[in-house]
């Protein structure tokens, strides 16, 4: 018997950590881990990230999918401190769309 | 194609883009020129105060290093001095000095509007040796975009004095000009704001590999 895997829908929001919660001029600094574990930090306006289940997610643009590697190339809403604008993020770091019961 | 004042005002009136101060007001008439709109200086500046590293990061910023986070340093009182511009005396920018500033106006350019911009200095300040950005003038399409209700985002300025005069900066002064340009086509991929054209994808949950497909979701 072949095991079945549940399909899930991943929203275009990736896991991030809030590095500075109350930044200058109503901003926050968030760090987005990429597939290597390196965090990309950028400043966004307050209320930009979504908080769910104790985790925070940053809206991004999805550019490409590596299905075998289970990672996606995403575009950040702004340039990170490292200069990066696009990074690879594992699927598991995306916010999962909750199906309505 | 650079937009003229009439085109920019029409975009603002149609809410296709947003340029407004903290009170939700668009730039007043005397800040406009035929092909640009001046933005004004926020009353807060930041000055770097290099010292012992509070975060364990090297004292010499190294942008390519792991977990480089200069934004956190900007909000750390051990790395910066926050300056409130005196409403009467202004802020004296002495020769050679460099501070970070912000526009009083916030900006939002939804990608769907196909508008990008460049923030440029003003010749009147340039003649005194004052620059307002360091080689990073582009405001990309999608800047500050999330929802119509989300807060607008000020433009960060890198203000320096290359001249021989001490120049006094006042809050609310015209500090830079914004030149808007039309992006010819909607970009194929990239950041578009969370709700403007949200895209999601499906894949097997967990770590199992399997097919995944890009799907478009309609705007709510």
Question: What can you tell me about this protein's structure?
Answer:
The complex is a heterodimer of chains A (101) and B (220). Chain A has no helices and nine strands. Chain A has strands at residues 7-23, 27-33, 39-45, 50-52, 55-59, 61-66, 71-75, 86-90, 94-96. The model of chain A has no long low-confidence stretch (mean pLDDT 90). By secondary structure, chain B is mainly β. Helices cover 8% and strands 33% of the residues of chain B. In chain B, the strands form five sheets. Chain B has a four-stranded antiparallel beta sheet with strand order 1-6-10-8, with no helix packed on it. A four-stranded antiparallel beta sheet of chain B has the order 2-12-7-9, with no helix packed on it. The longest helix of chain B has 9 residues, at 5-13. Chain B is globular, with a radius of gyration of 20 Å. The two termini of chain B are 32 Å apart. Classes of the chains: A mainly beta (101), B mainly beta (220). Chains A and B meet through strand 1, strand 2, strand 3 and strand 6 of A and helix 2, strand 10 and strand 13 of B. Strand 1 of chain A pairs antiparallel with strand 13 (199-204) of chain B, so a sheet runs across the interface.
Secondary structure layout:
The complex is a heterodimer of chains A (101) and B (220).
Chain A lengths: L6 E17 L3 E7 L5 E7 L4 E3 L2 E5 L1 E6 L4 E5 L10 E5 L3 E3 L5
Antiparallel strand pairs in A: 1-2, 1-5, 1-9, 2-3, 4-5, 6-7, 7-8
Chain B lengths: L4 H9 L4 E3 L16 E4 L3 E5 L21 H5 L5 E5 L6 E3 L4 E11 L6 E6 L2 H4 L3 E2 L6 E2 L13 E9 L5 E3 L4 E9 L16 E6 L8 E4 L4
Antiparallel strand pairs in B: 1-6, 2-12, 3-4, 5-11, 6-10, 7-9, 7-12, 8-10, 13-14
């Amino acid at each position: 018997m072949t095991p079945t895997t549940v399909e899930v829908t991943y929203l275009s929001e990736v896991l991030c950590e809030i590095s500075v919660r109350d930044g200058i001029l109503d901003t926050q600094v968030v760090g987005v881990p990429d597939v290597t574990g390196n965090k990309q930090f950028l400043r966004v306006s307050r209320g930009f990230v979504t908080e769910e289940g104790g985790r925070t997610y940053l809206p991004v643009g999805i550019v490409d999918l590596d299905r075998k590697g289970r990672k996606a190339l995403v575009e950040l809403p702004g340039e990170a401190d490292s200069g990066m604008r696009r990074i690879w993020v594992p699927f598991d770091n995306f916010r999962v769309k909750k199906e309505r019961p | 194609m650079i937009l003229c004042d009439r085109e920019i005002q029409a975009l603002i009136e149609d809410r296709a883009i947003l340029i407004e101060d903290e009170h939700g007001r668009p730039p007043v008439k005397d800040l406009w020129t035929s092909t640009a709109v001046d933005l004004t200086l926020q009353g807060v500046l930041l000055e770097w105060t290099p010292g012992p590293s509070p975060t364990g990061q090297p004292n010499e910023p190294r942008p390519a290093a792991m977990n480089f986070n200069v934004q956190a340093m900007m909000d750390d009182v051990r790395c910066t001095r926050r300056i409130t511009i005196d409403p009467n005396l202004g802020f004296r920018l002495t020769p050679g000095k460099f501070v970070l500033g912000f526009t009083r106006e916030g900006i939002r350019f939804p990608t769907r509007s196909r508008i990008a911009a460049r923030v440029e200095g003003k010749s009147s300040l340039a003649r005194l040796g004052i620059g307002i950005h360091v080689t990073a003038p582009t405001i990309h399409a999608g800047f500050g975009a999330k929802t119509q209700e989300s807060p607008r985002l000020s433009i960060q300025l890198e203000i320096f004095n290359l001249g021989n005069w001490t120049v006094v900066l006042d809050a609310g002064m015209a500090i830079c000009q914004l030149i808007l340009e039309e992006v010819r086509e909607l970009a194929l991929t990239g950041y578009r704001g969370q709700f403007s054209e949200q895209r999601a994808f499906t894949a097997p949950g967990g770590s199992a590999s399997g097919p995944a497909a890009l799907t478009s979701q309609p705007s709510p």
